[in-house]
Structure formats: C-alpha cells, structure tokens
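Problem 12. The chain below contains 176 residues. Write out its predicted structure in token notation.
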Amino acid sequence: SMLPHAIPGIGFAFALLIAGIMTAKWFPWVPFYNTVWIIIAGNVLNRLSYATRITNAALIQVHQELEDAALICGARKWVAMLRVMMPLIRPSLVFAGLWTALLVFREVSMALLLIGPKNKVLATQLWILWRQGDLSQASALSIVLIFITGLLILVVQRATGKIGEPRSLPQLGGGG
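Solution.
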C-alpha cells in the first residue's frame, strides 16, 4: 500500500495504459481500455497510501479493550466491529474519502495519459479547453469544478455532523 510513495502517478498511469492495451488485445470483452474504469483504477492505486495512513492512525487510537468488552458482552466479532469500531473510526474514513476525492479532482497528468475518446473527465476536458485557447469555456468549467468540490465538502460535513459536537455510542445490548 505504500508503493505509490515510491512510484509517481504518471508511472502508474503508464503501467495501466500498457495493461489496458494488452487487455484490449487479448481479452477484448473486458471493458477496461478507453473507459473511465482505467482512470478510476489509476487514481485508486495512486491514492491508496493516503487512505491507508489515515485509517491506520484511526485504528491505532482505538484500544483493543473496547472490542474485547463487546465480545465479553456476547457480541460477535463482526457486530463488535460494526457497532463499536466503525462509529469510532467513521470520521477518519470519511476524511480519507474526502481527501482522496479532492486530490483526484486536481489530478490531471494520469487522466491525460489514460484519456480516450470515451472517457473524458472534468480535469482533462478543462485541460483540452485551455490548450485550445477557449478560455471562457475553460473558466466556466473550472467554476463548475469548484462548485462540485464545494458541494462535496458540504455533503461530507452534513453527513459527519458538526465539529466539536459530542456523539453518543450505539448500545450493544437488547435493552436496559
């Protein structure tokens, strides 16, 4: 999961481009080359290390005794994970998703290498408009990109609740 720190994103994009060409040649029924899935795969691989570091930091802060207490009270392992651990690490997971999404929005080099006629994303379309000299449409598209980013941040803030507001933990037992 730490490999993206050693290999730049353009290296991942080149490797995925070669893999996509090979897939299109040997397995033409697999929809990977010239689709948005190749760009998604490149961004997931490139940003995996950020999400891993954030998740590791969140899991280190939660002590094992909380899960053990749930197991002693009769909860199964997956119930303890879902009802004890997940509420505690959910803000970190949401932040990891938001952080990687914001990094992907500004990533253009990988998408430019993997672009095809069917898989243009906002960053590549903005680049194409700017290179063609159509600055008014590029400016309008950049405002749309800023609006989408702001909307994404507001949705995440609404979903996670207000900062500093105390949260109650869910009850494990069947009642009092």
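Discussion. Residues 77-106 form the longest helix (30 residues). Students who got a different answer should revisit the alignment rule from Section 12.3.
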